[in-house]
Specification:
The chain has five helices and five strands. It is of the alpha+beta class. Strands 1-5-4-3-2 form a five-stranded antiparallel β-sheet, with helices on both faces. The protein is globular. About 10% of the residues have low confidence.
């Protein structure tokens, strides 16, 4: 009885801490230290395409996106060991937010967090994504 209660409590805690698009949005607004940003000399649609390509380069699975809202939500791809042990294989969730500053200038903000707060390990994709976006934009100029 005690073991099943403990397992239930741990399961509830693990799922209570799930990262969602809403929690990424909240982190962006309420924890500016968790946001990394950069500006690019390109229109929003070009930067949006470069951001999606950057996600693919890093092996991130795009969960949802809206070019009209300037948002892309992605997760790390599944880790089979974690799937067998915990029933989920995703380690980090990423939110990419694009804002037009001028006609040919776009700001990109990237937020990342663990998918489950009790999960171990953490990879910070923010700098890698921003660098890859710049690389894709420079490649497409040539």
């Amino acid at each position: 009885m005690k073991n099943s209660a403990l397992i239930t409590l741990l399961g509830v805690l693990a799922f209570a801490g799930c990262a969602t698009s809403g929690s990424l949005d909240d982190t962006r607004v309420n924890a500016p230290g968790r946001v990394m940003s950069d500006q690019y000399e390109a229109p929003l649609n070009n930067v949006y395409t470069a951001a999606k390509l950057a996600c693919l380069d890093l092996g991130l699975a795009i969960e949802s996106e809206s070019q009209a809202e300037g948002k892309i939500y992605a997760r790390t791809t599944a880790n089979m060991a974690k799937i067998f042990m915990f029933g989920t294989g995703y380690g980090e969730s990423v939110g990419i937010y694009l804002t037009t500053i001028e006609e040919k200038k776009t700001k990109v903000e990237v937020v990342t967090q663990k998918t489950y707060k009790l999960d171990w390990g953490f990879k910070d994709y923010r700098g890698n994504l921003l660098n890859l976006i710049r690389t894709h934009l420079q490649t497409n100029k040539q």
